[in-house]
Amino acid sequence: MSGRDVPIRQRALRSHNLAVVLRHVADRRGGVSRAAIAAHSGLTKATVSAIVDELVAGGLVSFSASADNGGVGRPAPRVTLAGARPVGLGMEINVDYVAACVLDLSGAVRHRQVFDSPPLAPAAAVAALASLAENACAAAQSEGLTIARGVVAVPGLVEGTTVHLAPNLDWHEVTLPASLAGIDLSFGNEANLAALGELHATGLPSFLYVSGEIGIGAGIVFHHQILPGTRGWAGELGHVTVDPDGRACRCGSQGCLEQYAGKHAMRSVEEAASALGVALSSAVNLLDLPTVVLGGHLAPLAPLVDAELRGRVLTAKWAPPTIRASTLGSDAAIIGAARTVTQAIIDDPAAYLTSIRA
Amino acid sequence: MSGRDVPIRQRALRSHNLAVVLRHVADRRGGVSRAAIAAHSGLTKATVSAIVDELVAGGLVSFSASADNGGVGRPAPRVTLAGARPVGLGMEINVDYVAACVLDLSGAVRHRQVFDSPPLAPAAAVAALASLAENACAAAQSEGLTIARGVVAVPGLVEGTTVHLAPNLDWHEVTLPASLAGIDLSFGNEANLAALGELHATGLPSFLYVSGEIGIGAGIVFHHQILPGTRGWAGELGHVTVDPDGRACRCGSQGCLEQYAGKHAMRSVEEAASALGVALSSAVNLLDLPTVVLGGHLAPLAPLVDAELRGRVLTAKWAPPTIRASTLGSDAAIIGAARTVTQAIIDDPAAYLTSIRA
User: Which of A188, B80, B240, B260 is least enclosed, having the fewest CB within 10 Å?
Assistant: First the structure.
């Protein structure tokens, strides 16, 4: 082995092993002994102990006493995700509210704030986000927590810090700040982040999440991962054509779902459910997803939509898709946004541990 | 390190390193020196030499002389994918032909056979596949090649060896044999496999491939990988609704794309292109794919479809999707099917090397 290769390979191995151990701890909500981590990972007990010590020092895991060891010997301490230290900030700008929450590594919501608000112009939205972020920081500090990073959900087409289009906020090519209140921010599509929130809450591995507001968006989840598309713009269900010669849409097309089932566009529940059923059938025919989760004002349409799906989905005869209402309601996007932060720490603890030493 | 852990970890490391080296060789069509593999992988030169020797012994790579070494010293031999030894068999049952091809690890077609044929009943199709497989075996043997495995493309819903439904063959719940002519077979959807063939031919990373026959199917490719859906049934573009109250489809629904743009259903090119444009716009809005590849009789519709996409895709203003004709035509599915076999060997050479020693 040449001298040059050694540090590169050892760093990669350490990162990998840190992530393996932390992910195993994250998967076992009740905690897990170091011996069990060693048996699961194939790592030696000495290696596991060293890794756990490093994770404890970084505030990512902590020990809790084991209640029961089957009566033999001293109970082994269990390793659990730390409720303390690094937490994620999730925020949302939407058409009738702005909101924020703080999520810890164990998935618990440690702070939540929601303001009703009319659609905000960009400058007012940034001021609202700054205020939400400051409040979240203060709340976190008072509990001994540190916000690692923030993610902001926006109902539109986002690329980096630019919102190309958020039609229902009337935003066009708006650039947002990369940090507020000392917290680094990134931005994402509201429906995609809400889908992550539902994933967090339900554990469903694969589903289509439909965000029902004035606009309609969707988030696609396969095997516990968001399918973002090539530019993060997947899931524009609201602009699926349900009637090629139908009503004009503000996007410039005709017969978009949003013009039949959007919160303000709905004329009758039957028409909205039928249009939603047509668009969802097309989505399920293309994506082969077993479950559709309906959010917002669309949730009560589930039974009517179900009938449409059974008639229009080619594979419904073998495996009809299941329709259910959202679990988190309008908190889905802020929880998904905050989870993006905590999940990144769990997936790559070495990067986080390096960042806090810097 | 406990005794029990050692062999498990060493086996995993060996598999990993074999795959890293073979994939690097596969990515460099012109061959690559062992020193360059070491520099790329971070492995020592001694480790790389041992791995290359093992891959040569298994017939997966071979050495070719380097033409030029910059004039300094003896030219280093270059490692290339072996044209010899393990090859993949791809076969297809379709509505008006049956076909087979043999692909080697370097991606070259070493044998190809196509028979025109009316839609075959299951027993006749199995007999045709057996004959194609025997001919492919004989052709492979005469060139010193060994067929590792075969994959068969079927225009329908496939699960294991069962075809639940192939509407245009009039097949319902047909079970196919798991081997023929001594070759282990698996089965897949024709459009998905044709998409893999286009991926192989074009190198486009992300696209929607549309298979235009009597039925219409699609294969979704993201970042060089097929998106199969949760049961392998994704891409049923032919059953996307383009007119909710439109023509009855044999699937039981109404207004399916297949009834407007299928080879036998087409009434006018304008109507077919408009329907295809509506369905593709919905697909691009949902999937955020930059490119659409049209196969079969749909390829000439590209310019008309383009106009429809520009009007109906929300993000077309920033990044209009590109439409192009299929490169491989009706060979796409057999090449994609055969590539499934060769790619599996490249991705996990350890499993293949174990299998030939058994």
Answer: B80
